[in-house]
Amino acid sequence: MSITSFHPPRRTLMGPGPSDVYSRVTEALSRPTIGHLDPMFVGMMDEVKQLLQYAFRTQNALTLPVSAPGSAGMETCFANLVEPGEKVIVCINGVFGIRMKENVERCGGETVIVQGEWGRAVDPAAVEETLKAHPDAVILAFVHAETSTGARSDAEKLCALARQHNCLTIVDAVTSLGGSELEVDAWGIDAIYSGTQKCLSCVPGLSPVSFNQRAVDKIQNRKTKVQSWFLDLNLVMGYWGKGAKRAYHHTAPVNALYALHEALVILQEEGIENSWKRHQLHHNALVAGLEAMGMSMVVPADERLAQLNLVTVPEGVDEAAVRAELLEAYNLEIGAGLGDFAGKVWRIGLMGCAATKTNALFCLGALEAVLGKSGGCKAAMEIYQK
């Protein structure tokens, strides 16, 4: 056997994630590894918590990155907050709502589904009706930014409804953190999870989470043990708590946390609100270009994510062949549709450091060439010139 070192091609990542990674972040990965209980590392952990609080817009003490991808952040929320027999209302308007339902059931909970239309925001009226019909429900779970459809739900309104009916909320912000307006404290979000590989432009493999005091109280007063030892926050809190003395829980991914620290420093330097505005600007230009080429967006404008764009594949076009040609000829990755949208749409991401004028125009120009269309770049430039 003569396997040699792996050297990946340099792609432009404009799919649903991972996004392109800042060069400063990849440099941070290469810094010397130190022990996960080293006082210098513990000091950096405290800074990561502060930076995540800034990104989430929260003062929650229990704010930390789970040492695993976003799916583990999701499981952390459900495993800690759902006990056997409890009723949980789950909003499903795409693939990741379905995964929430799976988590509830694996925790022994009973799910009540608010079924929404794919490509649309969760309907607050349907949620309110369900909350009234199930006064014994203890949690409302929904996806803020549905990665499979590009739809953004009104988290502020949904959380207000949940609180009126004495329900905790679990919110999926994997694609929204850093790219869309998100106010954990102001909106009253009880538990939230995200990922590092989307709008933070960090490497995949960590999942930022945050829990307010209401959620912490429920975790600390469970009648049953959390079914996962690794994700049990009663144990993890001892490692991510305050002070220099930390209880050993697991060997943290030291270099990956260097990378997250650097990505969050970059976000802080830009300013979270400026990041939201940047994503919106390049989204507006991309949409103008796609529509000028005769393509239509799936999600209504007022429910659309800026960082994840669902566009209908033109009639008669082999969507997989187009994606393959973009990858082979242009080293450009865009995403396929999932679930109900498989084979019908492209998912074009503008996330983190990939949300730039250069990338928006590059993607439009490549699509013009592959599809034999024109006018996309011109329409986008008109947005930029405004």
UniProtKB/TrEMBL annotation:
GO molecular function, one term: transaminase activity
InterPro entries in alphabetical order: Aminotrans_V_dom (IPR000192), Aminotrans_V_PyrdxlP_BS (IPR020578), PyrdxlP-dep_Trfase (IPR015424), PyrdxlP-dep_Trfase_major (IPR015421), PyrdxlP-dep_Trfase_small (IPR015422), SP_NH2Trfase/AEP_transaminase (IPR024169)
Superkingdom in the source lineage: Bacteria
Annotated PROSITE patterns: AA_TRANSFER_CLASS_5
Cofactor(s) named in the record: pyridoxal 5'-phosphate
UniProt key word Transferase: yes
Cell membrane keyword on record: no
Family: Belongs to the class-V pyridoxal-phosphate-dependent aminotransferase family.
Name of protein: Alanine--glyoxylate aminotransferase family protein
Species for this entry: Parendozoicomonas callyspongiae
